[in-house]
Amino acid sequence: MATTVEHHVDNTIERPGERAPLVLGGLNYSEITRTVCDVAERPRPPRAWYIAFAISFALTAMFGVLIMHLFLKGVGVWGNTSPVYWAFDIVNFVFWVGIGHAGTLISAILFLFRQNWRTGINRAAEAMTIFAVICAGTFPGIHIGRVWAFYWLFPIPTEHLALWPQFRSPLLWDVFAVGTYFTVSLLFWYMGLVPDLATMRDRAKSKWAKIAYGAFSLGWTGSARAWHRYEIAYMILAAFSTPLVLSVHTIVSFDFAVSQVPGWHTTIFPPYFVAGAIFSGFAMVVTLLVPARELFGLKDLITIRHLENMNKIIIATSLMVGCAYGIEFFIAWYSGVDSESYAFKNRVFGWYYWAYWIMVICNVVIPQLFWFKSIRTSPWLMVIICIFVNIGMWFERFVIIVTSLSRDYLPSSWTYYQPTWVDFGMLIGSFGLFTTLFLLFCRFLPTVAISEVKNVAPKTHHS
Amino acid sequence: MVATQTHGHHSKPHAGHGPESELVGLLAEFEDQDALIDACEQARLSGYKKFDAYSPFPVHGIDQAMGTRRTMLPFFVLAIAFGGVALGVGMQWYANIASFSPIFPGYDFIISGKPLWSLPANIPVSFEVIVLSSAFATFFGMWFLNRLPRLANPLHRIERFKRATDDRFFLMIEKNDKQFSAEQTLDQMQQWGASAVEPVKLDLTDHKIPLSLRRAGLVLGLLLLVPPAMIYRAQHATNPAPRLHFMPDMDWQYRFGAQNVGPIWYDNREPKYFFQDKTVMRLPPEGTIGRGALTTDIELFRGIKAGTKIPDPTLVPQPAPAVAGQAPAAPVLPLEPEWVTAFPAALTVDQSMVERGRDRFNIYCTVCHGYAGDGNGLVNERALELAISSPIQKGATSNAVWTKAKSLYDPTVTIQPVGRIFDTITHGRSTMGPYGSQISTRDRWAIVLYVKSLQAARAKEPPLVTPAVPVATPAADAAPAKDAPGSSIPASDETANKSDSPATDSKGN
Amino acid sequence: MRHKREAKITSPVISLGDDSYRLMSIAAFVGLLGIGAALLISLFLGENGGFKRFSYGYLVNFCFFATISLGALFFVTVQHLTRAGWSVTVRRIAEILAAAIIPLFVLFLPILLPTIMGYGGLYVWNDDGWTTSYAGHTLTAMEKLKGFYLSGGFFGVRSIVCFVVWSLMAWFFVGNSFRQDASGDVNITARMQKYSAPLMILFALTLVVAAFDWEMSLSPMWFSTMFPVCFFSGCVLGGASTIALVALLLQRSGRVTDEITIDNIQDLGKLMLAFIVFWGYVEFCQYMLIWYANIPEETFWFKYRFANSGWRTLTIILLVGHLFIPFLFLLPRTLKRSRPFMIGATIYVLAMHWLDHVWVIMPQFGFDGKDTAPFVLGLPELLCFVGLGGLFVSAFCFIASDRALVPLKDPRLGEALNYTNT
User: CA A396, A179, A234: angle at the middle one, nearest 5?
Assistant: First the structure.
């Protein structure tokens, strides 16, 4: 694909007919290998890594302590109260599941669409998916109250072998959707890792690295017959992951939309949630990759073009989300249902008006800055915008869940929900868990899909 | 061509016997993918069948060059996907419908008014199961077809081959190929532009798993035995320690009576109250009454004749002892109110009420009184059994005592007016507990009717006393259960009690 | 080894040539005849007839062809938006189909004009006191609420705005594409790419309005936020199928045989497969959410599609025939790579797409305002199909005339000719 290889080329400019290079700096195959493996092979990572790790690990520890506190004291330590039975716990769950959507989207949907630029970012995004789903799974896991009975969620007879889960409940669908999503993402990610682990195995110097990379690379040799089946398998997994990624946030949206709570029961929820999930997921990928590429010297592989393309997807999904907000409001009026139109008025002007306006400004207004090329190609500006997007998407879930619940059909039970310090601590702690896992991933595994990048890199010719 | 540099260094006891390594094939190195594709095409055209190419990434066009047949993986996955449909749908059907299964019965339970089998609600989980099973099929099927994991491969012993995962391209022709001949193949490979050719040798000397790994495996295996051993031990030992309480707040929580005054919870031993007046619940505002909670129809709600004197309930449990000199027993009776002998006017006594009564009776009463009302319910039988066989406790003179549930055909029961039976169900008698809070008023009356019907039916066979309560004829208005000799209640009043309007409680419960 | 194909047009025939005029006039004649016959038969049908019947049949087929054209317009826009290379060779067909939205504007007049003039047979909200026809209730509040939005005048304004937006979009893409055939200017592609993003926003907004107006407002009490998404999925499905069908038929007639590769056809097949599944997804979500919440304001719309055995059968036909069957036959790679098979497949999918519009529109014809509607489907609808189909084909031929059916000098032509599918 790529035609020119220059050192300081601006690959965000593409003349129709020629494809812009996706690997810069004139790297040949072995330099690509070295650039990526260097992160894991260097004796110690940069100091910034240690600082970041220390902070995130401390937050993770705090998360653990708060979870223990929750277990010992019960869910009363949260601010959840009638009728707002779902609050930060479910907001965080939906938020993290959403974050997890970008990885599979990049690895599956962009693969099916033959978007070659995905190769630079898919590995990190997939890893991020898995970590985000771990964070997401934590919240419903701990909010069930009697956590030691968690296995009741699984399709096994419990309580004297007579009690099965209720398959008509959307909450159980979640268990299957998130569980399947986690498993399939893990398989997909690991399958992509195997050839790269083999590369690291063949470069490993220390005995332990040889054993570890050797065992996990399964004896991969790069045989053409193996590559053939591997590529078909990759395509099949991508074809299954595409509807899967749609189904996961669809099913999460069912948790709300099957109910009759005004503001929750809207048929557009499934696609609208999926668009929002992709939106926030991409914002998170950008937020993480901009510092990562600086820190680990991956600028030639994760180029500005990669980031710019992601920002374009962010605008597109931002508009989809904005359009869905609009349709919801229109139908709330058009339907003539009092409770519906009240719910939406309440969102905009009610007690939680501030949450609503944070959501609209962060999700619909701020991303429009990406229409300017200078903004969507400058790394630090895009990080700031993407952080706003993530704030906005967190608030979107807050608006949907808390605003609607606090004003249900029964005015006498209306209430103003207030989170406790434990709620905030857990939200922050989950970020700690997420970044800890991500930093460990950057340190020990190939952050960029080496073999896939070589596929889109200019051919290396030896004289 | 340095081939066997690492081999043979491991000392081997029987070094003299046989060859130390065996030729597997020839490996040619190429510097770029185009050369590899060309070489593969040449190898295929030269009639080689058993050869393979190695590259750091999938090289496009190499499948055609090698003549690789398309893998059957997709068909395998498709088959598993259809299996996933059956698994997903079947699992849900079983779990939520198959309550008839003798082992692990399903749990048929209706929620949110949806039919037991509601396909739309089963689609999400079915879909996820399909995806999950297909993903497993793809993942494991691919590794299986690729014969991986294979950690011991002679190729990994070749130093040069390490670049196969970096930037070099290799072609190996196996010795097993019919066309293979060491010299000629080597010549051909060089002709095809190989930058180096090297023999691949299988090391025959070192087939054993390293001792360290074997030791680690042994230790791991032993460790894996620990959890089952612990479970076994736990199942066959008694432990006086109380079981673990994960959430003590929930296991030992404060109780409080419905209309009491008292703390709701303690925060560090400091009592906390919910309301200013320290009650645990709000009382209804003065002069109001809850919807459906109007209980002025005393016949319906108490089973007491309207207009008669209702004894103060607090005086009831004051039997004889107060009057020491006189004969006991007699003075208690007058405290009994005047029970209604006919069903209250607010009820429609008909066949459906009998059926309702049977239904409720079978749920609530049969455990002690038995289905036929003979006082031989399961709980009763089992309790008697236990009481007889129980060891005599220290300090006690006999075994545990169980008061037998009454037979409903006992003469002391058959003579009771309906109001009295209603009261028994509502408030309990002696060891029988009260059911007023569990069974709604109308259902309690239905049970009374059913009990009366039972008694009537039984009375027909042996020549017993009581006349029939009309059962099947809806027209008959609850003929009063007429009385056996010795009934203290005059069976005089008919359905004249219309003092309290039936409309007031029409909501019932 | 594979060698790269040069970015050159090699087919001997790449335009309709003289056939276009012949085909155009025949199709136009058949079309007008069909519409006339449909109108006549409807008027003589008696109970289930009249101008109302004709309007319903006309609307079904108008929506069918309009969604095809809009799907093609979406296809063109999205190809520019994503700087796609693979689709260059089939893009011209999509452009011509998209340009057909301009003549379709004229064909919308039989719906638009009566509605503006206050005819309430098709859109009940155009009648005063329409709310009484709903379960006998007089919901004056509802009438007041929707009165401004659902009025002939405002409906007309919205429809005209939609058509103007689409026509300008089609004009922009088609005109520039033809201009590039002559000049080969790369900047033309750059310009189309640049404007494709804002145009896509306009397209999305207008499509939402059209979906609500044309189809959802037939049952003015009913509402579903998912409805425009369902409508959109039908657009893309119809568009992709028609592009593939036209490409295959042109190749059958010996045109553009070299340029439209089997990989193109396979990719269009994949797109159809994707939107078959997407259609199933959105329709299922809409149904499931309404079924689960069980709110009478929403469920009645499905209820009268299930109450009558005819509509119930059609529902099942759609579920099986619009989702499962095409999913299975579009799945295997070998079938998607067989040209004769794909001709049949596209026709089948289009037939299902037509039934989808029938299912949405026709039950409203005899809806009693409570929970049943008689099964009404027959000759007027088929004749309207012939009529509008003829005029649509005629419009296609008119736009294509003797122009090239494949972009001649697109900078990415080489990419389209050389890519291979997995």
Answer: 100
Q: In the predicted model, what is the mean pLDDT of chain A? A: 90
- Cβ proximity of C162 and C388 under 8 Å: no
Kindly determine whether residue B41 and residue C294, on different chains, have CB atoms separated by under 8 Å.
Answer: no
pLDDT in tens, B217-263: 999 999 999 999 998 888 888 888 877 776 666 677 777 777 778 88
Write the residue in C1, C2, C291 that is nearest to B120 by C-beta. Answer: C291
Q: From B40, B54, B61, select the one nearest B170 (Cα to Cα).
A: B54
CB C362 within 8 A of CB C354: no
Distance from CA of A452 to the nearest CA of B (A): 7
CB B426 within 8 A of CB B435: yes
Spatial distance between the Cα atoms of B152 and A221, rounded to a whole number of angstroms: 11
A425: which 2 tokens? Answer: 């601590």
Alpha-carbon distance of A194 to A200, in angstroms, equals 10
Q: Choose among C24, C21, C54, C13: nearest CA to C36.
A: C54
Token pair of B321 as six digits:
């002892």
Separation of alpha carbons B310 and B70, rounded Å: 93
A123 within 8 A of A418, measured Cβ to Cβ: no
A74:B124 CB<8 A: no
A90-123 b/e (C-beta count within 10 Å ≥ 16 → b): bbbbbbbbbbbbbbbbbbbbbbeeebbbbbbbbb
Each residue's pLDDT tens digit, C340-385:
999 999 999 999 999 999 999 999 998 887 778 899 998 999 999 9
Q: Is any Cβ of chain C less than 8 angstroms from the Cβ of A404?
A: no
Q: C135 CA to chain A: closest CA distance, Å?
A: 17
In angstroms, the CA B41 to CA A223 distance is: 16
CB pairs under 8 A between A and C: 99
Q: What angle do CA A186, B136, A130 make, to 5 degrees?
A: 10
d(CA A373, CA A423): 39
Contact by Cβ (8 Å): A155, B95 = yes
Q: Under a CB-based contact definition with an 8 Å cutoff, are residues B413 and B405 in contact?
A: no
Instruction: Determine contact: B152 vs chain A, CB below 8 A.
Output: yes
| Cβ contact B95–A167 (<8 Å) | yes
**Mean pLDDT, residues C95-99:** 95
Residue of A nearest to B146 (CA): A226
Q: Which of A167, A215, A227 sits opposite B58 (nearest CB)?
A: A227
- Omega within 30 of 0 (cis) for the link into B149: yes
Phi and psi based region of residue A83 (left: phi greater than 0; alpha: psi -120 to 50; beta: remaining): alpha
Give yes or no for residue B508 having a pLDDT over 50: no
Q: Is ipTM over 0.90?
A: yes
The two tokens of residue B90 are 């079947």
CA dist C421 and C333 (Å) reads: 10
Q: In A74-163, which ranges are continuous DSSP H helix?
A: 88-99, 101-104, 110-112, 118-143
β-strand partners of B196 = B29
Q: By the 8 A CB rule, do C397 and C27 touch? A: yes
Q: Do A168 and B55 touch (CB under 8 A)?
A: no
- Residues C149 and C146: their CA atoms lie apart, in Å, by 5
Tell which C residues from 62 to 91 touch A, by Cβ distance under 8 Å: 82-83, 85-86
pLDDT in tens, A94-123: 999 999 988 888 888 888 888 888 888 999
Neighbours of chain A (3+ CB pairs under 8 A): B, C
- Distance (Å, rounded) from C-alpha A100 to C-alpha A434? 11
Tell me the two tokens of residue B24: 């597997």
Closest Cβ–Cβ partner in C201, C225, C281 for A268 = C225
Interface of C with B (CB under 8 A): 1-2, 284, 287-288, 291-292, 294, 331, 420
How long, in residues, is chain B? 509
CA angle C205, C210, C216 (to 5 degrees): 120
